[in-house]
Input
Amino acid sequence: MARRKGVSIVNFYLDNGFLNIPEVERYADKHGVNYIFIIGKRQVGKTYGVLKLMLDTGKTFILMRRTAKELGLIAKGVNSPFEALDGYEGRVSFSGSADDTTMEMSLTDTDSTEDKHTHKIGLAVALSTVASIRGFNGRPYTDMVYDECIPESHVYKIPFEDEAFNNAYMTINGNRELKGDKALRCWLLANSNRLDCAILKALKLTDVVEKMSKTGEEFRLLKERGIMIFMPSSVEITERHKETALFRAIGGENNFTKMALENEFSHNDFSDVGREEFNQYKLLCNLEGDMALMKHKSKARLYVCERYYWGDDVPEYNRQDYGRNKFIKDYPNVRSYYLRGKMRFQNATIKYQFLAYMKLI
Output
């Protein structure tokens, strides 16, 4: 059972312990959900289940990866995620070369060597380029599957990825809702590597996911926003994975096992996140329009919080390179404060926004 605040609400698992994606879809349909986040452990059926749902139900869909390089890799024969789907081995093909940023996906109806019939099932696209497409008719596509939407620490991150994602969604969704059609449904799949994720920022979900991770909450429905977040525990699958070669070789807990088995954001430290008493601090400046930097009145400590004062008598530094460079010049010790553990942040969203501003991540 998926749990919310300790209460069993719906069974999102199959009898074998893997994810029951058709049940997730039924729940989303019932509650008018357009954005479905599934963030969790490795090898519990996230990508497998969602892609099999797309094919089993005959949907025309978009498969998205972050970059053209990632897209080209999964389009190469045995690397295709469709090769792992029972009943679909060798039946899904990608058009174009591995260097293309948009590829048509087709499905062969039968495995028989005679009378094969192939039809289009959707497009595979790279987020890094799809947002720049103009005149694109996205209306035939009912669903978009963004796999690996939270990048691992070694993966290239697209500058302003939050804007790219929102632009891509708007391009594909088009005016369908204005014409009375259902909105494009977006499946966002990821492992729990890190909370520093542009998509979570874009939808203002960083703090929600951080709190869910801290409390062990598996499921959250934000009905008024059309969003559901599922962070599966998949206990049965976890116990079976512990007995496989890799985890027996590791022989204990580390950052990888926390992410892969325990659904913890292993590359994140929340010890410097929490609210402080404003009357203990003095406002120094505003950053990027919505952050404020404050200094403790009696201790060597800085605090970054949401902007709360809009007067002209406080220095303002914008997000452009000039503003950032001027801030670093005017406050050269800020980086040292952070590296020495002398900084606190109001919430996780503010922390990652500030670190990105300082180019520390």
Summary: Residues 161-173 form the longest helix (13 residues). The first strand starts at residue 2 and ends at 4. The CA atoms of residues 3 and 14 lie 15 Å apart. The chain is about 30% helix and 20% strand.
